[in-house]
From TrEMBL:
It comes from Bosea vaviloviae. One of its GO terms (molecular function) is tRNA threonylcarbamoyladenosine dehydratase. Residues 79-121 form the JAB domain. Keywords: Hydrolase, Metal-binding, Metalloprotease, Protease, Zinc. This is THIF-type NAD/FAD binding fold domain-containing protein. It comes from the Bacteria. One of its GO terms (biological process) is proteolysis. Residues 199-448 form the THIF-type NAD/FAD binding fold domain.
Length: 500
């Protein structure tokens, strides 16, 4: 093993959004099956306790003559390298190269690749100091779960080489990490308890779920319904985030809870972990007290393949969409409510909103109410003061400021949150297995309307919105977060496994 490989002890996660990956795949395999091709690229990144997260932000495609088309491997001209280096002085992203290997060849770095990476890691450091140099190799191979795009990667950052031990390509479970270019361990044989799933989707579906990670923001009514669906299907790791605890008022819709949980004020994430342990003890459940966009929670959720927003709050919806855009990960936001008055129910609404990195943000879609947003950001004392101010205004015969009031209670019940959560979990399973891709952007169902009142509401991005400009930029986006966590929020903390 050469020195470059021996140094590669720290790890990294490579993330790709669909538009960039589709373009990349067509480009680097343009001379397949016998010849290689390549492109320089730009990358966002974030340091987390689990390792470096690197996101493909843009391709700097070769122009005519930048690569030698007369040779089978990749030969890069000095002019192409120089152009990329000078461009790096004008942007804040990392720089790297992505190339293919021929048919049947694993993405294992050759001695020529080693030499190239040593040279470029030093060369680009002069033009992009302090930024990562990224080298990625892609191959089309027959894998254990069918045809795969095998990806190896190594990143030079902070004076050390890091191996890409995981790859997350949005809605592409056929894209698999081959650390150091070596085939990953064989996937497990599906157990009998998932026989119905494998009968419908194939054993490869279960194996893809086994290596997948799903992060859920919210472990209440909607999240607690989605969690057991994902766990029973075989998702290998769940990251569950919630800042609340069980209370009498939410036991009706909190799956896995018992009355004593409300009496003991047990955190909802603890109930979720206990629930999963009782049905699927092999599933890894990581639990956090916290909210987006707290830095520790960002570090946790960007490790996932899919992000689910299960709070039905405007603040959370805005943060979930921002994470999807900046860190190149697909997300699904779930909500529900009951419409009506005076005891007469006129609508029972379930809403599922797709937030792919390339989708319009909730502000473009008109989904963020400024009044609700400001109310959700209030502290408990601020809410009480605002409520008193509103009552005083009414007593004076005045119309109170709409901000001066308590946050309205989400008007929903257990079977609506359960319907929403299970539907969303099913669609996420489709993404993770590659067996189906939900064809909606903003799906609304009315459970008491004819034919469920199903409508899709596709919406366009506003031309001046930043969400169309910095996909995959990670922490290097100019707008690092849609808002800052208020000081009154409880500090984020990881809850270690314990007997409950």
């Amino acid at each position: 093993m050469n020195a470059l490989h021996r140094m590669a002890e720290p790890t990294a996660l490579l993330r790709f959004a669909s538009p960039e990956f589709d373009l990349l795949e067509g480009l680097v395999f343009r001379r397949y099956p016998r010849k290689e091709w390549a492109s320089f690229a730009r990358f966002g990144w974030r340091e987390t306790p689990e390792g470096l997260v690197v996101t493909l932000a843009a391709l700097d495609e070769p122009a005519e003559g930048d690569l030698d088309d007369g040779v089978a491997d990749v030969k890069i001209t000095a002019a192409y390298s120089r152009r990329i280096a000078l461009a790096a002085e004008r942007h804040a992203l990392g720089v790297g190269i992505i190339h293919s290997h021929p048919e049947g060849a694993p993405p294992r770095p050759s001695s020529i690749d080693d030499e190239m990476d040593r040279y470029y890691a030093e060369y680009f450091a002069d033009f992009a100091p302090g930024r990562p140099y990224v080298s990625i190799i892609m191959s089309e191979l027959a894998g254990d779960t069918g045809k795969e795009i095998a990806v190896s990667g190594r990143i030079f950052h902070g004076g050390v080489w890091r191996q890409a031990t995981r790859v997350a390509a949005a809605r592409r479970p056929d894209v698999v990490a081959w650390p150091r270019g070596e085939r990953p361990p064989a996937p497990p044989i599906p157990p009998e308890r998932v026989a119905r799933l494998t009968s419908a989707f194939g054993k490869e579906a279960y194996q893809r779920l086994q290596r997948a990670t799903v992060a859920l923001i919210g472990a209440g009514g909607t999240g607690s319904a989605a969690i057991p669906i994902l766990a029973r299907a075989g998702v290998g790791r769940l990251i569950v985030i919630d800042s609340d605890h069980a209370s009498e008022s939410n036991l009706e819709r909190l799956h896995g809870s018992v009355p004593q949980d409300a009496a003991d004020a047990v955190p909802k994430v603890t109930i979720a972990r206990r629930h999963v342990a009782g049905m699927s003890p092999d599933v890894i459940v990581e639990t956090w007290i916290g909210r987006l966009p707290q830095p520790e929670i960002i570090d946790a959720v960007i490790q996932a393949d899919v992000l689910m927003g299960c709070t039905d709050q405007h603040t959370s919806r805005l943060a979930v969409s921002d994470i999807a855009r900046r860190y190149a990960m697909p997300a699904l936001d779930i909500g529900g409510l009951i419409e009506g008055a005076n005891g007469v129910v006129t609508g029972q609404i379930v809403q599922l909103v797709r937030f792919l990195p390339e989708d319009p943000c909730p502000q473009c879609r008109g989904m963020i109410n400024p009044t609700r947003f400001r109310q959700e950001m209030m502290s408990t004392d601020e809410r009480e003061a605002a409520k008193a101010e509103a009552e005083a205004a009414v007593a004076r015969g005045e119309r109170p400021d709409p901000i001066a009031g308590a946050i309205p209670q989400i008007d929903t019940v257990g079977y609506i949150t359960t319907t929403a959560g299970t539907l969303a979990a099913g669609f996420v399973i489709g993404w993770l297995t590659g067996r189906f891709d939900p064809k909606f952007e903003r799906l609304q169902l009315d459970l008491v309307a004819e034919c469920l009142g199903a409508v899709d509401r596709p919406q366009r991005r506003k031309d001046d919105c930043v969400c169309g400009r910095v996909r995959g930029f990670a922490d290097q986006a100019a707008d690092t977060a849609p808002f800052q966590p208020p000081v009154h929020w409880e500090p984020a903390r990881k809850i270690v496994a314990e007997k409950v």
